[in-house]
Design the sequence.
C-alpha cells in the first residue's frame, strides 16, 4: 500500500470494534431469500416500534422530572411502560432478535433529536 | 468501451505523469469545459469488487490530489463510453464547478475519539446525590423510579459528552472551513468527526489535535488524513442513485409487510 | 469471499473503505452501467466487502450472527 494518507492511532482494534457496533442495522438491499424476508421485516417493524416506545418512555421521564405527574399518574404510567417493555421482550424472543439489532442508528438525524 | 471513473478534476488538460488504476490500466482525463473526468478502460472482470481494487481506486485519487482539486467519485462507477462521460459532465457541470471552487486547496481530516464510558458513568453515579422523590410503595412506582434513575444518569452522560466534544470542536474549528460531527455513535465512541481544512493550515490543525490529545490522555484517539474531500461534496441534483434505491428498498419492504399482515393499505 | 482480518495496521483499510464505498460523488444517468453495490460489513473484528455473491456464500456460516443473516 503506497498511500499518502496517514491513519494514526495507538488503539486500532478498539476503533474497529466501535465502528462495527455502530453499523446500520437496516440492510441496504432487499434480501429476496424468503427465509430472511420475514426476519428482515420483523427487524424493521420492531425497530420502529422500539423507537416509539423509547420516545414515550423519555417523554414520561421528562414529566416525572418536571414533577407534573400525580401519584396516581405515576402508578398508571409505570404499569403501562412495564407492559410495553415486557411485550417488546416477548416479540424480540419470538423473532430471535437482540437489543443491539434493533438499535436504529439515525445518523445525522440523531443529532436533530 | 467501459470506463471506470475515479474522480472529477479542475482541469481539461491531459494528465502528465503515468498513473495506473484498476487492472493496471493507465488513467487519463476526459475534458469538458474547464473540468475533466479521470477514467481508465475497464473490462469489468467478475471479481472486480475486491480489496485490492478499492486500494487501487484510492491510490489514483491520492496521486491526483497532488496536482488537482479532486471530487472523488464512488467506488465502481462505470460508464458505457466516452460520450456517456461527457454528457454526464454536461448535466452535472454546475454542481461540479461549485464543489471544485468550494473545495479547492482544502483537504479532509478524520478524528475519532473513544472515551471510558464505564468510568464516566460510574463517576456520575457516585457524584449524583439527587434525591429521587418518587414513592416506591408499588411495583409500578418502583419501575418508574428505576427508569428515572437511569434516565438521570443518561442525561448527565450526554451532557458530559457534549461538554468534551465542544471543547475539542472549538480547537479544531479554528483551522477548519467545514465540519461534520457524529456524537456518541456508540457509548464508547464519543466522537466521529471530519474536518475540511485549508492546505496551508494543515500543520496548525495537527497541532490542535496534539494539544487536545495531551489534554485528556485517558481518552483514545484516531487521526486520519489528509484525504480528498470525500465527506464534503454536495450535489444538488436529485440524481443520487443509491438514495433512490434505498428508498425503493424501504418502499418494497412496506409493500411486503402489507401482504404479510394482510392489510389493505398501510 | 474477500475477507480482511484486522491486524494492528488494518484500521487503515477500514478508514479507506468507509470513504471509498460510502462517500464521494454518486453519479447516475443513462450511461452509468454500474455503481458500487458493495456493502461494508463488520463481522466482529473482521471486515468484509460484501456483494450479493459473498452473502450467498456466507449464509450458513457458523460465524454469522442473525443480524448479518437478515442482511
Sequence:
Amino acid at each position: 500500500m503506497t498511500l499518502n494518507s496517514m491513519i494514526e492511532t495507538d488503539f486500532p482494534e478498539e476503533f474497529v470494534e466501535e465502528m462495527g457496533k455502530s453499523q446500520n442495522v437496516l440492510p441496504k438491499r432487499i434480501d429476496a431469500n424468503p427465509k430472511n424476508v420475514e426476519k428482515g421485516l420483523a427487524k424493521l417493524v420492531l425497530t420502529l416500534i422500539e423507537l416509539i416506545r423509547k420516545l414515550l418512555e423519555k417523554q414520561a421521564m421528562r414529566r416525572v422530572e418536571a414533577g407534573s405527574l400525580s401519584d396516581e399518574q405515576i402508578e398508571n404510567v409505570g404499569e403501562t411502560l412495564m407492559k410495553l417493555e415486557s411485550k417488546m421482550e416477548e416479540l424480540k424472543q419470538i423473532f430471535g432478535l437482540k437489543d443491539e439489532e434493533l438499535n436504529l442508528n439515525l445518523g445525522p438525524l440523531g443529532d436533530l433529536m | 468501451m467501459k470506463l471506470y471513473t475515479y474522480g472529477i478534476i479542475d482541469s481539461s488538460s491531459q494528465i502528465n505523469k503515468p498513473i495506473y488504476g484498476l487492472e493496471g490500466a493507465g488513467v487519463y482525463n476526459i475534458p469538458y469545459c474547464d473540468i475533466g473526468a479521470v477514467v481508465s478502460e475497464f473490462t469489468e472482470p467478475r471479481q472486480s469488487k475486491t480489496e485490492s481494487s478499492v486500494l487501487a481506486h484510492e491510490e489514483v485519487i491520492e496521486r491526483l490530489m497532488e496536482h488537482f482539486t479532486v471530487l472523488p467519485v464512488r467506488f465502481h462507477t462505470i460508464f458505457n463510453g466516452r460520450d456517456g462521460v461527457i454528457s454526464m459532465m454536461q448535466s452535472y457541470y454546475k454542481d461540479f464547478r461549485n464543489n471544485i471552487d468550494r473545495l479547492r486547496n482544502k483537504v479532509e481530516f478524520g478524528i475519532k475519539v473513544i472515551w471510558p464510558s464505564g468510568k464516566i458513568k460510574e463517576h456520575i453515579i457516585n457524584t449524583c446525590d439527587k434525591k429521587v422523590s418518587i414513592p416506591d410503595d408499588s411495583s409500578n412506582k418502583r419501575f418508574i423510579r428505576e427508569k428515572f434513575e437511569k434516565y438521570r444518569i443518561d442525561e448527565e452522560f450526554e451532557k458530559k459528552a457534549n461538554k468534551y466534544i465542544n471543547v475539542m470542536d472549538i480547537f479544531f474549528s479554528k483551522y477548519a472551513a467545514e465540519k461534520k460531527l457524529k456524537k456518541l455513535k456508540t457509548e464508547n465512541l464519543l466522537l466521529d468527526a471530519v474536518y475540511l481544512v485549508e492546505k496551508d493550515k494543515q500543520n496548525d490543525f495537527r497541532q490542535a489535535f496534539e494539544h487536545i490529545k495531551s489534554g485528556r490522555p485517558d481518552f483514545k484517539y484516531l487521526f486520519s488524513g489528509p484525504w480528498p474531500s470525500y465527506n464534503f461534496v454536495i450535489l444538488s441534483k436529485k440524481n443520487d442513485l443509491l438514495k433512490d434505491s434505498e428508498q425503493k428498498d424501504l418502499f418494497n419492504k412496506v409493500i411486503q409487510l402489507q401482504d404479510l399482515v394482510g392489510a389493505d393499505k398501510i | 469471499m474477500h475477507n480482511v482480518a484486522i491486524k494492528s495496521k488494518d484500521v487503515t483499510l477500514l478508514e479507506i473503505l468507509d470513504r471509498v464505498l460510502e462517500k464521494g460523488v454518486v453519479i447516475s444517468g443513462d450511461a452509468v452501467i454500474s455503481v458500487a453495490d458493495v456493502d461494508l460489513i463488520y463481522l466482529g473484528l473482521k471486515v468484509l466487502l460484501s456483494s450479493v455473491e459473498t452473502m450467498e456464500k456466507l449464509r450458513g456460516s457458523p460465524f454469522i450472527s442473525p443480524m448479518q443473516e437478515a442482511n
Q: What stands out?
A: Chain A has a mean pLDDT of 76.
